[in-house]
Amino acid sequence: ETGVTQSPTHLIKTRGQQVTLRCSSQSGHNTVSWYQQALGQGPQFIFQYYREEENGRGNFPPRFSGLQFPNYSSELNVNALELDDSALYLCASSFGLAPDYEQYFGPGTRLTVT
Amino acid sequence: GESVGLHLPTLSVQEGDNSIINCAYSNSASDYFIWYKQESGKGPQFIIDIRSNMDKRQGQRVTVLLNKTVKHLSLQIAATQPGDSAVYFCAENANYGQNFVFGPGTRLSVLP
User: Fold this and answer.
1) Inter-residue contact A80 to A101 (CB < 8 Å)
2) Please, are residues B98 and B2 in contact by the beta-carbon 8 Å criterion?
3) In this structure, which of A32, B69, B92, B103 has its CB flanked by the most CB atoms within 10 Å?
4) Which of the residue ranges A23-27, A32-36, A83-87 would you say has the lowest mean pLDDT?
5) In this complex, which of A42, A48, A105 lies closest to B98 when CB atoms are compared?
6) Scanning every residue of chain A, which has its alpha carbon at the shortest distance from the alpha carbon of B3?
7) pLDDT of residue A72
8) B49 CB within 8 Å of a chain A CB
9) In angstroms, what separates the C-alpha of B17 from chain A's closest C-alpha?
10) pLDDT exceeds 90 at position A46
11) pLDDT of residue B7
C-alpha cells in the first residue's frame, strides 16, 4: 500500500448538490494532485497543490476547487454536481514536483451522481 | 473491488509468455513518460519511467521502449504472471509540467 488514504470510499449524491472529498498524503509529502477517472478511461488531471498553493490546473470548470492544509492533507470540492461528475476521484501525493519525484496514488473515492 | 474499465482493449497472454502493451502519445513536446498498473479497487501504481533522452529502460521483468519519431511507447513484461493481470496506462508529461496526460489503458489478462 502507498500510505495515501482517501475518504469516503464511496458516496452517492444528487445532481445540484455539493461534495467534499478528502485525501491524506503519505508522510513527508508536500504535493498533492487530484485526478478524475471516468469508467473505462484513464485518469484526467484536475489540479495540484504544492506547499498549500495551487500549482497547475487541468481543463475543469471553477466548480471544482480544492484546498491543501498545513499538514499537506487535501480536499477536493465539487459544487453544482452534474451527472457527468460520476467517476472515481484519485489523489496522488509526492515529496515534490514531477518528474523528479514519484507520485503515489490513493485507492480513490467513487462518486455517483443521480 | 472497483472496476477500472469495462470496455478497454484487452490483451490476453498465457502465463509465462512475454507481454507487449503499446501506447501512442499525442504531444511531440512530451519528454517524460510513465507506465502505471491499476488493479481493481486500487489507484495506479508506478511501474517504470523513461525520459525522452533515452530509447529504452529496463526494470525488474519490465522494459519500456520509446520511439519519439512515431510518438510510440511500449511496455514489455517478461514471463507474465497471474499477478500481472491489471489495467495498464501510459502517462506523458512535458516541460516539467505537473499535468500528466494518461492514455486510455489496456487490460492485461493472464491465462493459466
Assistant:
1) no
2) no
3) A32
4) A23-27
5) A48
6) A39
7) 92
8) yes
9) 26
10) yes
11) 62
B32, B49, B103 ranked by CB distance to A42: nearest = B103
The DSSP bridge partners found for residue B62 are B77
Q: What is the four-CA torsion angle of A92, A95, A97, A100, rounded to 10 degrees?
A: -110
Q: What is the mean pLDDT of residues B77-106?
A: 93
Q: What angle do CA A80, A81, A84 make, to 5 degrees?
A: 140
Q: What cell was used for B42?
A: 486500487
Best of A11, A41, A53 to mutate (most B CBs within 10 Å, chain B): A41
- What's the pLDDT at A97? 87
Q: What are phi and psi for residue B92, nearest 5 degrees?
A: -120, 155
Q: Please name the residue of chain A whose CA is at the shortest distance from the CA of residue B5.
A: A40
> Residues 6 or more apart from B10 whose CB is under 8 A from it?
B106, B107, B108, B109
Which pLDDT band, with edges at 50, 70 and 90, does A27 fall under? confident
Residues B89 and B103: their CA atoms lie apart, in Å, by 6
Bridge partners, residue B76, by sequence = B20, B63
How many Cβ atoms from other residues are within 10 Å of residue A10's Cβ?
11
Residues in chain B with CB shorter than 8 Å from the CB of A94 are none
In the predicted model, what is the mean pLDDT of residues A24-43? 94
Do the Cβ atoms of A39 and B44 come within 8 Å? Answer: no
